[in-house]
């Protein structure tokens, strides 16, 4: 019975860490910046949007060749 309690405690700790990490991620400025870039370039793939956000977060127009 003690093993079951320890497993529950381990799951609780992991869940708490995951929730805290998600709160930090969604509240960060980098995530807000990425969402802003994503809103401007909604026709691009997630990978391309990420590249744009990393290379030029203030971009308003992107041209390919």
Describe this structure in words.
- The protein is an all-alpha fold.
- It has one domain (2-55).
- The chain is 74% helix and 0% strand.
- It is built from 3 helices and no strands.
- It has helices at 2-27, 29-40, 46-55.
- Helix 2 (29-40) crosses helix 3.
- The longest helix has 26 residues, at 2-27.
- The relative contact order is 0.09.
Short description:
The protein is mostly helical and 65 residues long. It contains three helices and no strands.
Average pLDDT across residues?
84
Main beta sheet, described? none
Radius of gyration computed on alpha carbons: 19 Å
Number of domains: 1
Can you give the helix content as a percent range?
Answer: over 70%
Number of strands: 0
The total count of helices amounts to: 3
Shape: elongated
Which consecutive residue ranges, at least 5 long each, have pLDDT under 50?
Answer: none
What structural category characterises the helix and strand content?
Answer: mainly alpha
Oligomer: single chain
Order of helices and strands: HHH
User: How much β-strand is present in the residues?
Assistant: under 5%
Termini separation comes to: 65 Å
């Amino acid at each position: 019975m003690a093993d079951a309690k320890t497993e529950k405690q381990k799951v609780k700790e992991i869940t708490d860490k995951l929730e805290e990490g998600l709160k930090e991620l969604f509240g960060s400025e980098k995530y807000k910046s990425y969402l802003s870039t994503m809103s401007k370039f909604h026709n691009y793939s997630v990978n391309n949007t990420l590249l744009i956000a990393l290379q030029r977060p203030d971009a308003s127009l992107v041209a390919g060749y």
